[in-house]
Amino acid sequence: MSEYRINVRFNLSDTEHTAIIDYLNSLDKEKYRSRNQFIIDAIKSAIDYANRQTSDDALLEKFREILKEELCGISVAATAPSPSSEGFNIELTEEEKQKNDAEALAFLDMF
User: Fold this and answer.
1) Could you tell me the maximum CA-CA distance found in the chain, to the nearest angstrom?
2) Is residue 59 in a domain?
3) C-alpha to C-alpha distance for 48 and 32, rounded to whole angstroms
4) Residue 77 placed within a domain
5) Could you state, in chain order, the average pLDDT of each consecutive group of 10 residues for the chain (111 residues)?
6) Count: domains in the chain
7) Containing domain of residue 39, as a range?
8) 96 occurs within a structural domain
9) Would you say residue 20 lies in a domain?
10) Of all residues in the chain, what percent are helix, strand and coil, respectively (each to 5)?
11) The whole model's pTM is what?
């Protein structure tokens, strides 16, 4: 069996490093088999997560592009007031329009 070895150094005066050392020393050997296997699994999980994030970011960007393209061709017009809205002011002020625009963009940023 060929092996690739790598050494990791921990700084004992760094609290994060000592917390990691303590955790590695307290691992359940039946569950994780060894510290080495735990570290390999942790690195693999970190790589999978990073790849998934990159993929998710690309998908999100593509979705945003499609949504912008589709919404670009849509015009929004006010409908005639319904009889039940008589007596109410349905016109938005400029400030309300800007607030609505900002909220719509904030909603799209969630994607």
Assistant:
1) 84
2) yes
3) 19
4) no
5) 87 94 88 87 88 77 77 70 61 82 77 62
6) 1
7) 15-70+92-109
8) yes
9) yes
10) 65, 0, 35
11) 0.46
